[in-house]
């Protein structure tokens, strides 16, 4: 019967291109189906991309323990590390504040970032030091402390109301005006601690007292002028209407440190 089989029913030994493509597609489809029917187990860590990683690996690559590596701000920092970082930020802000004096090259973006953020730690420290120097630890400390905060509040309200279209909050203005208070602290140290020591050493010499009085007044004028200039730089305020109230308030603080 093999001799009666016609050659048309015998498969050819050589396949054409269409036959090869069809066979390759069938093999790929079968492989895909077998993979879907019996999928390989996935032992990858689902928390790896979200800031988590495994600390130990058990059998078959399954994580035996998962520890978070992402930090939660100051909650995962020591007190010393947090204080060091805050002091570093205060120093950087002071550099930006005193750019007109130091002659540093500061971009507008850095000033804008400084104006949009707020830091009340530095103003608080400056107010405490100022109140301690002027009051000499007496009962007027609390009065000076509250008066300084009231002065900063007036400065912030003045700048906020004079330019209501600027996207800077009242707290940010208070923070910006608080950094030039470091000059008031320096002046109060000279006026309340250094000058009395010099007068005591000179035994109240009239000429020395007169010279020191003139020096104190010159330092007061320089302190007020520099404070207003630095405040104008970091707050982007210009003109007599905007800066004159700031000058009056800084002068008030300086005059209190002079006469008390």
What can you tell me about this protein's structure?
- This protein is mostly helical.
- 65% of the residues lie in helices and 5% in strands.
- It has helices at 17-37, 79-97, 99-102, 108-116, 121-135, 141-162, 170-178, 181-201, 206-235, 240-259, and strands at 52-57, 63-68.
- It is globular.
Shape: globular
Spatial extent as radius of gyration: 37 Å
Mean pLDDT metric = 78
Point out poorly predicted stretches: 48-55
The CA-CA distance between the termini, in Å, is 131 Å
Succession of helices and strands: HEEHHHHHHHHH
Count of extended strands: 2
Helix content: 55-70%
Largest sheet: 2 strands, antiparallel
**Order of strands across the main sheet:** 1-2
The share of residues in extended strands comes to under 5%
Helix/strand structural class: mainly alpha
Number of helices: 10
Brief synopsis:
By secondary structure, the protein is mainly alpha-helical.
Secondary structure blueprint with pairings:
Layout: H1 17-37, E1 52-57, E2 63-68, H2 79-97, H3 99-102, H4 108-116, H5 121-135, H6 141-162, H7 170-178, H8 181-201, H9 206-235, H10 240-259
Antiparallel strand pairs: 1-2
Helix pairs in contact: 5-6, 5-7, 5-8, 6-7, 6-10, 8-9, 8-10, 9-10
Question: Could you list some keywords that capture this structure?
Answer:
260 residues, mainly alpha, two-stranded antiparallel ribbon, 5% strand
């Amino acid at each position: 019967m093999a001799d009666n089989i016609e050659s048309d029913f015998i498969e050819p030994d050589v396949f054409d291109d269409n036959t090869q493509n069809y066979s390759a597609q069938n093999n790929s489809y079968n492989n895909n189906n077998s993979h879907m029917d019996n999928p390989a187990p996935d032992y990858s860590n689902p928390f790896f991309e979200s800031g988590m990683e495994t600390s130990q690996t058990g059998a078959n690559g399954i994580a035996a323990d998962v520890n978070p590596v992402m930090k939660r701000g100051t909650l995962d920092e020591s007190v010393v590390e947090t204080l060091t970082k805050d002091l570093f930020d205060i120093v950087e802000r002071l550099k930006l504040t005193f750019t007109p004096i130091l002659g540093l090259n500061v971009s507008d973006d850095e000033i804008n970032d400084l104006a949009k953020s707020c830091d009340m730690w530095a103003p608080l420290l400056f107010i405490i030091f100022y109140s301690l120097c002027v009051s000499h630890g007496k009962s007027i400390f609390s009065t000076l402390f509250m008066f300084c905060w009231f002065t900063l509040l007036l400065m912030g309200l003045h700048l906020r109301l004079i330019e209501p279209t600027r996207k800077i909050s009242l707290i940010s203005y208070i923070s910006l005006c608080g950094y030039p208070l470091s000059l008031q602290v320096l002046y109060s140290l000279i006026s309340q601690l250094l000058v009395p020591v010099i007068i005591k050493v000179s035994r109240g010499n009239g000429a020395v007292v007169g010279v020191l009085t003139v020096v104190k007044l010159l330092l007061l004028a320089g302190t007020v002028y520099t404070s207003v200039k630095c405040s104008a730089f970091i707050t982007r305020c210009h003109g007599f209407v905007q800066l004159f109230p700031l000058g009056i308030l800084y002068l008030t603080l300086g005059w209190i440190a002079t006469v008390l």
